From TrEMBL:
Residue span, HTH merR-type domain: 2-70
InterPro entries per record: DNA-bd_dom_put_sf, MerR-type_HTH_dom, MerR_fam, TipA-like_antibiotic-bd, TipAS_dom
Taxonomic lineage from the root: Bacteria, Bacillati, Bacillota, Bacilli, Bacillales
Record's keyword terms, sorted: Activator, DNA-binding, Transcription, Transcription regulation
Organism: Aquibacillus rhizosphaerae
Protein name stated in the entry: MerR family transcriptional regulator
Gene3D superfamilies, per the entry: 1.10.1660.10, Antibiotic binding domain of TipA-like multidrug resistance regulators
Keyword Nucleotide-binding among record annotations: no
Signal peptide coordinates: none
Keyword Transcription appears in the UniProt entry: yes
Length: 249
């Protein structure tokens, strides 16, 4: 049994644009019929499930592609690893839930919590977004951005956030247009200019293109961006790639 792309998107709960992106980057390439429609087989669905497991555990798409295309890749073994990692993740969540329940009892006066107990389960050892940014663009870029933002007043930071959200909403209103359209490219330039003028760091065209790829590769970014419109993260990624490639010339 084969399925069309819309059927697959509805079953999985992801956008058609995301599946298009997976095809474009060679992560999941279904067969096409004579009219060019993508047709997904049972094997494609099994592979997609595997991809979604990796995404749930925070693997970037580039790494997922490397793993599943490796001749030594063993699906059963990978599923067992996924299970073990999810069990560990569940254990951490269980500890957090236990702490919350105890905190509620403490608020109700049923138990007493020490200051140490109030913070068990939290891990503030690193910021995952900052860690990834440092790895991709170096400490200087992140430090400059932090200094820039920290130097702003609360009102200035709020204005900055509002401006950023306005750009997201504007791009979300353009989802019906192709990423390479003039309207979309004008809007994505506003995003490029915003990052370079407001974050305290100059993004090269290559770094800007790489940032767009993170929007799709990292589900944390995808989830936040797609709040403005389903498929916006992939749309921005494609538009940022077009912008970077065009302006290199």
């Amino acid at each position: 049994m084969v399925m069309k792309i819309k059927e697959v998107a509805d079953i999985v709960g992801i956008s058609v644009r995301t599946l298009h992106h997976y095809d474009e980057i060679g992560l999941l390439k279904p067969k096409t019929n004579n009219t060019g429609y993508r047709l997904y087989s049972e094997d494609d669905l099994e592979l997609l499930q595997q991809i979604m497991f990796f995404k749930e555990l925070g693997f970037p798409l580039k790494k997922i592609k490397e793993i599943i295309n490796n001749p030594s890749f063993d699906r059963k073994e990978a599923l067992e690893v996924h299970r073990n990692m999810l069990v560990e993740k569940r254990s951490r969540l269980d500890k957090m839930i236990e702490m919350i329940n105890k905190t509620i009892q403490h608020v109700n006066g049923e138990v007493n919590m020490t200051n140490k107990e109030k913070f068990e389960g939290f891990d503030f050892s690193y910021n995952p977004y900052e860690k990834e940014a440092r790895e991709r663009w170096g400490d200087k870029a992140v430090d400059n951005s932090n200094v820039k933002i920290d130097s702003l007043s609360d009102n200035q930071q709020k204005l900055l956030s509002n401006k950023m959200n306005e750009i997201y909403r504007n791009l979300a209103n353009l989802l019906e247009y192709a990423p390479e359209s003039d309207k979309t490219q004008k809007a994505i330039k506003e995003w490029y200019d915003f990052l370079n003028n407001e974050t305290g760091h100059h993004y090269s065209l290559e770094a800007f293109k790489g940032l767009g790829q993170i929007y799709v590769a990292d589900e944390r970014f995808t989830e936040n961006i797609d709040k403005f419109g389903e498929g916006l993260a992939v749309y921005m990624c494609n538009a940022m790639e077009v912008f970077a490639d065009r302006n290199k010339q």
